[in-house]
Amino acid sequence: MPEPVPMKKLMTGIPEMDLVLRGGLPCHRLHLLEGVPGAGKTTIALQFLLEGVARGERGLYITLSESTDELTAAAASHGWSLDGIDVFDLIPIEAELERQQSVLYPSEVELGETMRLITDRIAADQPDRVVVDSLAELRLIAQDQLRYRRQILALKQAVQGRQCTTLVLDDLTSQAGARELHSLMHGVISLEMIERSYGAARRRMRVVKMRGTDYQSGWHDFAITAGNVLVFPSLIAEEHQSEFEPSTLSSGLAELDDLLGGGLTRGTTTMLVGPSGAGKSSLALQYVMSAVRAGEHGSYFSFDEAFGTLTQRSTALGLDLAEAVESGRLGWHRANPSRLSPGEFVWRVRREVEDNDARIVVIDSLNSYLSTMPEETALILQMHELLTYLNNQGVATILILAQQGIIGDIENPVDLSFMSDAVVLLRFFEAGGEVRKAISVVKKRTGIHELAIREFRLFPDGMKVGPKLLEFQGVLTGVPSYGGPLDPLLRGEGETG
C-alpha cells in the first residue's frame, strides 16, 4: 500500500492560526471564512494575501461589497499597503438589468455576468492566492438557492483548474444558505464575536472542516490589534511534557517552609485560601521573590491589584519588587478581566514559561479570572488544563482564592480545591482585643506537612510565622477560646478582701 502523500499547505500570515491548521491552508483549494460583520474576516483575508506578497506570490482581492478606497483605508488602519495585490472592485452590475429579458429573469442575467467577470479576471491575472469578498452579495443576486449553489460549484471548478488557493468570505446573513456551502468547500473556518454585558467583545474561531488534513479542533480565542491578528490556540496539556527534578522551592523563612514540609514542590499547584486582607498576596510575593533571589525567573499575573500598591506592600515586607521587574527577573502582568479573553490569558502564561523559562507562576486571583466570562464550567476546565500544563513543565504554581466573609462564616465562591496539590488556609481570629492572622496547611499531596495552626504576621517588621497556637481552640472559626494559664488577676490572685 503506498504511503499517503502529505498535502502542500500555504502559510496564512498569522503564525498561531497556522498552528491551529497544523501548517496552514491546503493549496489549490476553495476555503470558506465565515462570520458575522465585524468578526475580522477582511483583516484575516488581507493578511493571507500579504503573506503571499512577502513570498513572491501573486494576490487578487475581488470585492463585491467594499470599494477599493474602503479596502485601502482598512489596510492603512493596520499600517499595511496593498502594493503587490490586485484589487478587482466588482459592484454587482445592476445597470445592465435595465435591458429586461423576456426569457431570463434579471437575477439570472446579473448572477451569470458577475460570475463570468470573476472567473475571467482570475484567468487573466493567474494569481496564486485569491480572496472573494463576499458570498453574501452573490446570494442576494441569485435569489434562488439552487442557482446560487450551481454558481459556487462553477467557481470552485474554475479556481481549482487555475491552481490557485481561494478564500471566500461570508457574513452569515443567511444561516441556511451558509450551511449549504459547507459541503462544497474544502475547508471551513468560522469566526464568532461575543458581546459581553461589560467590556471588550470576545472573538474566537474554530475550524469546522478541513478535508484530508489534521487540525486542532475546538474554539480558539483571537484578538485584532493594529497591524496584527493574534490567535490563541486552545491548550492541550498532554502535548507539552518535560523532564524536571521535583525539588522544593524555599520561601526564605524557615518557619514557613517547615509548615509546608520543606517548601513548595516544583511541578505542583498550591492554593492560598482566605478572606480579603489575610495576607494571601503577601505570602505569594514571599515565594516568588525568594525564587528570583535564587536566580530563577518568576511571573506574577494580577487581576486585582495595581503595580503601584503591590510595590508599596512588597517594600514594607523588605522585598524589592520594582527592581526585580525592571531587571527582567520577574514578569509582572496586569490582567484586566473586562478586556482579556481566557484564551489570551493562557497564552500569556505560556509565553512566560516557554520564552522566559518562568519557574514559579502566581495567579492573583481566581475570583477575577472566573469573572472573565459567564460560562464558569468552561473556565474551570480551561484552568485545569493550564495547571496540568504548568505541572508538566515543572513550574511551581500559586493560585490565590479570596473567600467571602471576614470572621466566622466564610464561604468559597467556588470549590476549586480539586485542582490544587497543596492548600494553605489563612484566617483572621480575635484574641486579646486584637484581630490576628493564622496560617495552616490543610492538604499536601507530595509529602508530609505540619498539622499545626500558627500565628502569621506581616507588619511592621516584615513577614513572620510564629509558634504553634497550642492553647487556643476554634481558631479557624474566627472566635477561639483560650485554654492556657490564666492571668493572675483574672484568676483572682492578689485580690484583697
TrEMBL record:
Key word Electron transport present: no
Database matches in InterPro entries: AAA+_ATPase, Circadian_clock_KaiC-rel, KaiC, KaiC-like_dom, KaiC_dom, P-loop_NTPase, RecA_ATP-bd
UniProt entry tagged with the keyword Transferase: yes
Pfam families reported in the protein's UniProt record: ATPase
One GO MF term attached to the UniProt entry: protein serine/threonine kinase activity
Signal peptide stretch: none
GO biological process: one example: DNA repair
EC number(s) per entry: 2.7.11.1
Domain (RecA family profile) ranges: 245-286
Domain KaiC: 8-245, 247-479
SUPFAM superfamilies from the UniProt entry: P-loop containing nucleoside triphosphate hydrolases
Keywords: DNA damage, DNA repair, DNA-binding, Hydrolase, Kinase, Phosphoprotein, Repeat, Transferase
Protein's UniProt name: non-specific serine/threonine protein kinase
